[in-house]
Amino acid sequence: MRAYAEYRLERAEEALEEARVLLSLGKFRGTINRAYYAMFYAASALLATKGLGSSKHAGVISFLHKDFVKTGVFPADTASFIDKAFRLRTESDYGDEYTPTQDDAESTVGRAEQFVRTAREVLETL
């Protein structure tokens, strides 16, 4: 499980780097997508330490809140970043009415950086 958690965290770092590149190119829709996935992979890494997982994004987020936030292992304010990013990513990828802004993209990347950093810190204590 530990090796799988590390693998998922590496995927998170890779997605975060992709988000930064897309942001620098002004590709805000892709930026939000990759920043969200960085958080998703980091959350999946945490879940792997308990043998948890889900085929649905909402399931991963729910397990994160139930098994890591409510138990005080992962900070609630940082966990809320994945909730917002999930909504933005869904609107951005599937909504015809939403056009991502530079501010949306920059703030999502900043939140993803903090989320992934916190996930790494938590993993080191488990």
What do you see in this structure?
The protein is mostly helical. The chain has one domain (2-125): Four Helix Bundle (Hemerythrin (Met), subunit A) (Up-down Bundle), CATH 1.20.120. It is built from 5 helices and no strands. It has helices at 2-24, 28-48, 57-69, 76-94, 102-125. α1 (2-24) runs antiparallel to α5 (102-125), α2 (28-48) packs across α3 and α2 crosses α4 (76-94).
Name some characteristics of this structure.
mainly alpha; Four Helix Bundle (Hemerythrin (Met), subunit A)
End-to-end separation in angstroms reads 12 Å
Task: Write out the CATH superfamily name.
Answer: Nucleotidyltransferases  domain 2
The computed structural class is: mainly alpha
Taken in chain order, the helices and strands follow as: HHHHH
Strand content: under 5%
Poorly predicted tracts of residues? none
Overall CATH class: Mainly Alpha
Level-2 CATH architecture: Up-down Bundle
Biggest pleated-sheet summary: none
Number of strands: 0
Q: Calculate the mean pLDDT score and round it.
A: 95
Q: Provide the domain count.
A: 1
**Shape descriptor:** globular
How many DSSP helices?
5
- Radius of gyration, in Å, reads 14 Å
CATH topology, by name, is Four Helix Bundle (Hemerythrin (Met), subunit A)
Portion in helices: over 70%
Compile the SSE list and pairings:
Layout: H1 2-24, H2 28-48, H3 57-69, H4 76-94, H5 102-125
